[in-house]
Here is the input.
Amino acid sequence: MVRDYWNLTDAPFGGSLEPATFHLGAPQDEALARLEWLLDERQRFGLVVADEGCGKSHLAAMAVRRLGGLGAEAAMLSLRGLAAGDWIELLLERLPLDSASRAEPIRGWQKLENRLRENTLMERPTVLVFDDIDHGPADALDGIGRLIGAAEPRYARTVVVATATPEGLARLPVGMRQRAAVKIELAAWGEEDVAGFLSRSIRRAGGAADVFSAGAVTTLARFSGGVPRVVVQLGQLALAAAAGDGLPQVDAATVERAWRELVPTTAGGAVHPADPADVPLIEEDDADVPSNPRVRAVRRLWQ
Here is the structure.
């Protein structure tokens, strides 16, 4: 019903990590610029830190695509939920080894080192992206620590990127944290980023860019705190509610009503900036509502 009502050809707010669903907001733009700097300057290790729901995994997937497009051999592995001893083989599956190399009767670590040596000799960087490193098993942290700390020539063209939450940083070895050339703090979206994401997502699904009114965008940005996961959830609910009411646009009141339905289901999950009872209803003509501060992009500093 929702797709038919808004004349959409697809779900506008997909939950996949596909490039088409990635929104390059100011925080994402800055983060990718710093990761490019890591590659250009042959730095060994970078950390991306963000709260749950702020898009770490999507950024990690896009980093593989972006850095791979700059000539690196890039692979991504999520460490969340892995058992001890599994990470090396799973990482090797994501690298383009030939059949002879895969079948070689040597340990997984030796296969990885051989590949890093090959890439170094070919002057091709290797970028290894580890998502949720703060949830990784101890042997994975030990191995990654060797990748970023060993002075051997075979690691000279290896770049490691890892994502973690602020709380999870304490679970990483002190030496690993100290070796990070950059610690990229991925902030939540500002109101302009939320507006751009909503408009782009609706247009990508075949709908009109102004389905969400200006007041609805302001309200949605405020209640979601700019957390991308909450923006998606609240946007989906607001679209359905406005369609059910037969509205020509999603308005601020509909977004607030959707928020009141969403909060109980996400308790203990994403961090919300305020209880809706403490935030007055945003009227469509309210021009004095402060927006969330945007993260200043510093791309020029990292080129």
